[in-house]
């Protein structure tokens, strides 16, 4: 603590410090000499390719991947072409750009993912130099060929190659170049001699006249600033749009630098550029003086949002402008509150001592800062090796940090952090667990059961886990069985269906769709099956799934009548087939042919009743047709009852009689029919004959009632005497004979009947009758 | 109202919100097709639309002409056609034909189909198969619930019954689930959900799934408990003749979407008159739940009161007269008009229903319910068929006989069917097939052994899904057990005792004191017991599928009978009758509950049986 300021160096108003992040865990024999090195920003991983120029199959260059602290993550011999450049994507994938223009992509652990090409024309002229750059649109790659042509892809995940126009007057390779992102477009900035080309010819304002050539350039992390190094040893700093010059510093070194990087941070007091040569680096800012550091061995600079990391064979350091708050606290003789607090802390050894003196200060920032610091400490740990500064952490967000940890398969740490920061479960823990499970399913050496059990145990009840996603991953790895097992855990059956269909488990997909209760989903599967399977199998499948079958039948009823028939045929459902033909018969106006088919089917279905009924219908139909031809009476489509009634109405009694006998119409029905028909015609004579023809099976009350209905009381009375005793009262009442009704009721000594008659009497006109009835009622009650 | 309810009955929630939501969405959808357009509306959506948006509203949103969907070629000259339809394959096919014939004649138009309440994949398949998928835009009008009255909400989906219970087509289950979800999100959370029936269970699950996806808000609930019931749990009640005024009006004049058209015989003029029948109609509101025998007495009392009110005019000075005219006269006139209308209707009902055959019909029904003199009943039914009195009524009596007797004897089954076919034609072979399928008209099975069909169905159900929903045709395996149920639940009051219909003592009054509706009795019992405990035997006879689940709110709170706890939503899947609603209103008054009936449609015996005919499809 006492020596906090020991490594501070002033540069103009500001201080710069260089602090050690890690002593590197790797053991490099020759340091970084003759190595291609790429270190990802935000404390990302480091890739090394030793002696990339080696081509002989016996001695291949070795590709190694380390964490920022130098912990090995992968190492393998490079068997592909000559690599010109290494770089990292925003998702921690390694890009290896070969001189033939092919770009190979590996993950953090050296597993090959995919490759793409920067264009065919690269082939002969070869890649001379390549750069990997980041923008809001993802990770991009730019190359320059031996023919001095630039090709650029802004986002490698959505590859669109742009071949840039030729640079006029450029002979051989450009001296230096950089990629800019401006106005939502990626551009290449090329220096030839003292001139800079973007697309327009331009020269930076106020470049020192001694310079004849720009030998190195670099763009700031944010693409806002540009730094140029000239052969005269001048460093020009300005805005990337070349409109403004910030400053120019004479370094007095004329060798072209090995690397250059902007070292600034948001709200920086003193933006500066770090220039590296063999053996030393120089920090140059707006002021005239500079800071110089000595370097051990070959080093590389890794520009960051708020500083520059310097990596050499043994150490990993961070060079940055001292943040204002640190400066306030630790600057010698500082009287800022922070500094005083620090003094107090030293006295009283209480960490949050000063808080007590602040009455209106909300505690949240304090608590969240403490949390952030703990997280940062955890990831900076040597074993994890992500040396993030607080500024970087805030810029990259927790989500991305979690992603990074997931890429490194540091699942437990990721989960701990999610829990500690109280990230909502579905963005935090659940997401990590899903990645873990997706990784787990790729472990080829473990058995399906073991993996499935492990996954279900660990994922348990975590919210928002999509098992179908994990299962899809398993399927992509060729583990269909495992995928099915995993799908079983998916609580929403609907989610399982698409993958099951993809895996050709159509039967299972159908069951799951049915289980989901979503008929649209069932129907989707049915349509899919219909197209995939042959008819027989398709019907067979449906047969085992009544819900799907009903749905499909409903559809066929309206759209495909013939399919419906085939369905019934397949099922040997003769009953339904019979029904089908019956329906067809009356749709197409009484087709005897259809009815015959129906009879056959009903017989097969052993439904004697339906078969017989249909046969009778055929007979009736033939009869009706014949009569229609003979008599011109429209009968087809009528029921037996209606046919007889029509015949009686038009006086075809004989034909009616014939039907009555042929179809064994119950006597009662026939009597009712005939009686009604005759009454309709008011053929009283015929009715009387009919009544006398034989004993009526329906009794004689209907005769009375029907005559009354047709307002003929005179005829009605003829039949009253023939009515059975139980119905006598009713019959008398029907013809309006109160006296007769009263007699009948009293005779039968029936209380209910007496009351009925009473209710019909009016006390004024039928007084004598009422008295008689009341007396009878009294006697009946006494008894 | 003759009976005064408990004073502490809670207030009903305001359901007019449902209409507002529906109207706003419809307007939004119409605006999605800017410019003048002709609107084609499914025939059965016409009255529904009437309740939501009138013609003026539609015109305001550039609807030029309105047509009814008739599945015939169209004559519209508009460049934009909009179709507001139920998701039915036939209708979609008709639209596809229109598009194709326009194409053939080189005519360019824009087409938009608005499906309500939702679209089905099968409909889109038809558009695709007919090659017009790209020419037509589709939308959904999520209009699930139409409030018919203060305490009745309907999905207005009569086809729910046939599709679900006969065809085994479960596509409407999600719709019912969404409807429940809508009620839940506006008036919930519910503290307890009870239910019985396969479909009820599936609707419950569908609702549960939908709710789990969304977030839950803590809010003061307006509806406490929910009871879901399948229509096939109780087929007896809707098959009985209705004798309560509202039910009678529905049986005779057919109430459609809460309104009824009275013909000249009622209005005693040469015109028909369409009137809304709901609680807004003061006269109707007082007689709707009354047994018909009381209605006339009530109406004449009402007429006398009205006369007295009119008579007040006599001896008034100018000022009083002015007040009378401005304040009371309009109300009296209105009441007068309604009163004469209902008197007309009652007279008309009287003419039809007090005839001797109706009395005998009722007697037969009551005998069947009691299981008394069954042979006489069969003769009556036989005569009913032979005399071709009424196609639907005969069928109704046959079904009632079958359910109450656990099926017909093989001999009767054959002979009655044969006679029916002689009367009404061979196509009723299909009707009988349907009735058998749904379990309404079956042959008695000897002994208690599994029937062939049962074991066939049993084989189809694999173990995993058995508990869920696979066997679409469970009704095949079902016995009605009506007699045993009736004994256990005491559905038939002791005969011989005088039943005063003016002062009902139980729900049986809606059937002249002869029978307490099974559906309503179940609801009463479950609410009383707060679940199904003690009703195990009953649920076994009803084929199970009962459930009682505590809702989202914590259990302790549900114990306290706050107001919302006494508001109970009863959801009938497959329709409910006005008589059942009357019975529930009675139960509510007795126990201090308020029932809200949510049904897929209002039904009665005729609608129920017509849905099972096969002579039109």
Give descriptors for this structure.
heterodimer; A: 783 residues; alpha+beta; 4-stranded antiparallel β-sheet; 43% helix; elongated; B: 617 residues; Rossmann fold; Syntaxin Binding Protein 1, Chain A, domain 2; 4 domains; 27 helices; 14 strands; 50% helix; 12% strand
CATH class of the largest domain in chain B: Alpha Beta
Radius of gyration of chain B: 26 Å
Counted up, domains of chain B total: 4
User: Major sheet of chain B: order of its strands?
Assistant: 6-7-14-13-9-8-12
Biggest sheet strand order of chain A reads 1-2-29-28-27
Helicity level of chain A, as a percent range?
40-55%
**What distance lies between the first and last C-alpha atoms of chain B, to the nearest angstrom?**
44 Å
Largest sheet of chain A: 5 strands, antiparallel
Assembly type of the chains comes to heterodimer
Determine the number of helices of chain A (DSSP H or I, runs of at least 4 residues).
29
- The tally of beta strands of chain B, per DSSP, is 14
Q: Mean pLDDT of chain B, nearest integer?
A: 82
Distance between the termini of chain A: 124 Å
* The CATH architecture of the largest domain in chain B: 3-Layer(aba) Sandwich
Membrane topology (chain B): Peripheral membrane protein
Organism (chain B): Pygocentrus nattereri (Red-bellied piranha)
Keywords (chain B): Protein transport, Transport
InterPro entries (chain B): Sec-1-like_dom1, Sec-1-like_dom3a, Sec1-like, Sec1-like_dom2, Sec1-like_sf, VPS33_dom3b
Structure description:
The complex is a heterodimer of chains A (783) and B (617). Chain A has 783 residues and is α+β, with helices and mostly antiparallel strands. In chain A, the strands form 7 sheets. In chain A, strands 1-2-29-28-27 form a 5-stranded antiparallel β-sheet, with no helix packed on it. In chain A, strands 3-4-5-6 form a 4-stranded antiparallel β-sheet, with no helix packed on it. A 4-stranded antiparallel β-sheet of chain A has the order 7-8-9-10, with no helix packed on it. The N and C termini of chain A lie far apart (124 Å). The mean pLDDT of chain A is 81. Chain B is α/β, with parallel strands linked by helices and 617 residues long. Chain B has 27 helices and 14 strands. In chain B, the strands form 3 sheets. In chain B, strands 6-7-14-13-9-8-12 form a 7-stranded mixed β-sheet. In chain B, strand 8 (192-196), helix 8 (198-213) and strand 9 (225-230) form a beta-alpha-beta unit. The model of chain B is unreliable at 448-477 and 553-559 (pLDDT under 50). Chains A and B meet through helix 12, helix 13, helix 15, helix 17 and helix 19 of A and helix 4, helix 5, helix 7, helix 8 and helix 16 of B.
């Amino acid at each position: 603590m006492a020596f906090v300021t020991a490594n501070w160096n002033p540069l103009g108003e500001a201080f710069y410090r260089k602090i050690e992040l890690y002593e590197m865990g790797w053991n490099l024999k020759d340091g970084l000499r003759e190595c291609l090195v790429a270190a990802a920003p935000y404390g990302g991983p480091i890739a090394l390719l030793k002696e990339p120029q080696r081509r002989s199959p016996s001695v291949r260059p070795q590709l190694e991947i380390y964490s920022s602290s130098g912990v090995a993550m992968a190492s393998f011999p490079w068997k592909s072409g000559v690599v010109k450049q290494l770089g990292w994507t925003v998702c921690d994938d390694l890009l290896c750009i070969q001189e033939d223009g092919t770009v190979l992509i590996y993950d953090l652990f050296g597993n090959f993912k995919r490759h793409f090409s920067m264009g065919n024309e690269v082939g002969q002229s070869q890649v001379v130099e390549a750069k990997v750059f980041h923008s809001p649109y993802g990770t991009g790659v730019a190359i320059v060929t031996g023919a001095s042509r630039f090709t650029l892809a802004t986002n490698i995940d959505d590859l669109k190659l742009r071949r840039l126009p030729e640079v006029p007057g450029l002979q051989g390779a450009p001296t230096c170049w950089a990629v800019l992102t401006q106005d939502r477009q990626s551009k290449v900035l090329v220096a030839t001699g003292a001139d800079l080309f973007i697309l327009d010819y331009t020269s930076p304002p106020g470049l020192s006249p001694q310079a004849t050539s720009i030998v190195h350039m670099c763009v700031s992390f944010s693409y806002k600033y540009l730094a140029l190094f000239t052969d005269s040893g001048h460093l020009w700093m300005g805005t990337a749009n070349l409109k403004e010059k910030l400053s120019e510093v004479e370094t007095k070194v004329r060798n072209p630098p090995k690397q250059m990087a902007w070292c600034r941070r948001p709200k920086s007091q003193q933006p500066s550029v770090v220039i590296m040569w063999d053996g030393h680096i120089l920090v140059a800012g707006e002021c005239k003086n500079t800071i110089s550091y000595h370097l051990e061995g070959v080093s590389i600079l890794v520009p960051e949002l708020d500083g520059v990391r310097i990596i050499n064979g043994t150490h990993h350091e961070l060079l940055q402008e001292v943040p204002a708050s640190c400066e306030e606290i630790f600057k010698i003789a500082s009287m800022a509150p922070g500094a005083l607090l620090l003094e107090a802390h030293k006295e009283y050894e209480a960490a949050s001592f000063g808080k007590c003196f602040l009455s209106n200060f909300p505690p949240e920032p304090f608590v969240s800062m403490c949390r952030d610091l703990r997280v940062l400490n955890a990831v900076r740990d040597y074993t994890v090796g992500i040396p993030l500064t607080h500024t970087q952490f805030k810029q990259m967000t927790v989500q991305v940090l979690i992603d990074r940890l997931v890429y490194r398969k540091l699942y437990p740490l990721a989960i701990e952090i999610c829990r500690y920061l109280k990230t909502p479960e579905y963005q935090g823990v659940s997401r990590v667990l899903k990645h873990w499970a997706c990784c787990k399913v790729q472990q080829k050496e473990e058995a399906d059961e073991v993996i499935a059990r492990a996954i279900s145990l660990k994922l348990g009840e975590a919210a928002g886990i999509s098992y179908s996603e994990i299962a899809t991953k398993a399927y992509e790895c060729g583990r269909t069985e495992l995928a099915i097992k995993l799908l079983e855990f998916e609580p929403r059956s609907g989610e399982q269906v698409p993958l099951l269909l993809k895996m050709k488990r159509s039967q299972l997909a159908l069951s799951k769709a049915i289980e989901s209760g979503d008929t649209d989903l069932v129907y989707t599967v049915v349509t899919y099956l219909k197209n995939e399977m042959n008819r027989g199998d398709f019907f067979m499948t449906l047969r085992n799934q009544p819900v799907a079958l009903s749905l499909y039948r409903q559809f066929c009823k309206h759209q495909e009548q013939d399919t419906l028939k085939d369905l019934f045929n397949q099922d040997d459902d003769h009953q339904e087939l019979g029904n089908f033909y019956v329906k067809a018969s009356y749709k197409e106006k009484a087709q005897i042919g259809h009815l015959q088919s129906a009879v056959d089917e009903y017989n097969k279905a052993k439904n004697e009743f339906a078969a017989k009924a249909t046969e009778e219908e055929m007979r009736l139909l033939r009869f009706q047709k014949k009569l229609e031809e003979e008599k011109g009476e429209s009968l087809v489509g009528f029921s037996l009852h209606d046919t007889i009634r029509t015949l009686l109405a038009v006086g075809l009694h004989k034909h009616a009689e014939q039907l009555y006998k042929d179809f064994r119409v119950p006597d009662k029905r026939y009597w009712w029919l005939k009686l009604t028909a005759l009454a309709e015609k008011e053929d009283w004579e015929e009715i009387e004959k009919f009544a006398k023809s034989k004993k009526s099976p329906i009794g004689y009350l209907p005769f009375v009632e029907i005559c009354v209905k047709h307002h003929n009381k005179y005829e009605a009375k003829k039949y009253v005497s023939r009515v059975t005793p139980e119905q006598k009262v009713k019959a008398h009442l029907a013809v309006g004979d109160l006296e007769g009704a009263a007699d009948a009721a009293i005779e039968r000594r029936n209380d209910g009947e007496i009351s009925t008659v009473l209710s019909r009497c009016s006390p004024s006109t039928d007084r004598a009758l009422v008295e008689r009835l009341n007396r009878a009622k009294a006697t009946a009650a006494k008894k | 109202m003759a009976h005064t309810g408990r004073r502490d009955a809670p207030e009903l929630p305001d359901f007019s919100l449902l209409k507002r939501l529906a109207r706003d969405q419809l307007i939004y959808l119409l605006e999605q097709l800017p410019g003048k357009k002709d609107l084609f509306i499914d025939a059965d959506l016409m009255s529904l639309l009437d309740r939501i948006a009138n013609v003026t509203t539609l015109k305001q949103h550039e609807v030029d002409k309105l047509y009814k969907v008739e599945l015939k070629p169209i004559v519209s000259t508009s460049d934009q056609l909009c179709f507001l339809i139920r998701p039915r394959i036939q209708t979609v096919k008709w639209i596809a034909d229109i598009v194709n014939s326009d194409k053939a004649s080189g005519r360019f138009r824009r087409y938009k189909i608005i499906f309500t309440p939702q679209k089905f994949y099968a409909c889109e398949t038809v558009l695709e198969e007919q090659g017009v998928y790209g020419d037509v835009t589709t939308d959904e009008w999520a209009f699930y619930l139409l409030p018919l009255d203060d305490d009745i909400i309907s999905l207005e989906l009569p086809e729910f019954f046939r599709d679900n219970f006969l065809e085994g087509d479960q596509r409407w289950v999600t719709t019912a689930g969404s409807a429940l979800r809508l009620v839940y999100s506006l008036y919930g959370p519910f503290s307890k959900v009870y239910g019985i029936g396969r479909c009820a269970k599936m609707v419950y699950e569908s609702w549960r799934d939908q709710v789990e996806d969304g977030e839950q808000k803590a809010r003061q609930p307006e509806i406490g408990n929910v009871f879901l019931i399948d229509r096939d749990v109780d087929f007896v009640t809707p098959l009985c003749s209705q004798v309560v005024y509202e039910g009678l009006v529905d049986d005779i004049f057919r109430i459609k979407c809460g309104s009824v058209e009275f013909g000249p015989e009622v209005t005693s003029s040469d015109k028909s008159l369409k009137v809304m029948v709901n609680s807004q109609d003061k006269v109707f509101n007082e007689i709707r739940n009354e047994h018909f025998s009381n209605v006339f007495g009530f109406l004449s009392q009402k007429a006398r009161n009205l006369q007295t009110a009119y008579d007040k005019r006599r001896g008034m000075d100018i000022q009083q007269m002015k007040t009378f005219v401005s304040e009371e006269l309009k109300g009296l006139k209105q009441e007068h008009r309604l009163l004469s209308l209902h008197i007309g209707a009652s007279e008309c009902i009287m003419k039809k229903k007090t005839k001797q055959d109706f009395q005998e019909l009722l007697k037969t029904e009551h005998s069947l319910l009691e299981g008394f003199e069954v042979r006489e009943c069969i003769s009556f039914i036989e005569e009913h068929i032979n005399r071709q009195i009424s196609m639907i009524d005969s069928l109704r009596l046959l079904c009632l006989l079958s359910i109450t007797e656990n099926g017909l004897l093989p001999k009767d089954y054959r002979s009655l069917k044969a006679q029916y076919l002689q009367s009404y034609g061979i196509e009723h072979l299909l009707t009988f097939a349907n009735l058998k399928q749904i379990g309404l008209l079956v042959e008695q099975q000897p002994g208690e052994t599994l029937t062939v069909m049962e074991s066939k169905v049993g084989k189809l159900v694999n173990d995993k899904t058995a508990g869920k929903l696979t066997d679409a045709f469970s009704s095949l395996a079902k016995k009605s057990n009506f007699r045993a149920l009736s004994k256990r639940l005491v559905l038939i009051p002791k005969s011989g005792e005088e039943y005063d219909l003016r002062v009902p003592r139980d729900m049986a009054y809606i059937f002249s004191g002869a029978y307490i509706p099974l559906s309503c009795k179940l609801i009463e019992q479950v609410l009383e017991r707060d679940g199904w405990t003690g009703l195990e035997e009953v649920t076994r006879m009803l084929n199970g599928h009962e459930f009682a689940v505590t809702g989202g709110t914590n259990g302790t709170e549900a114990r306290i009978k706050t107001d919302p706890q006494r508001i109970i939503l009863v959801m009938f899947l497959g329709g409910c009758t006005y008589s059942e609603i009357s019975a529930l209103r009675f139960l509510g008054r007795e126990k201090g509950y308020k029932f809200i009936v949510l049904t897929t449609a209002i039904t009665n015996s005729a609608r129920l049986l017509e849905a099972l005919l096969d002579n039109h499809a």
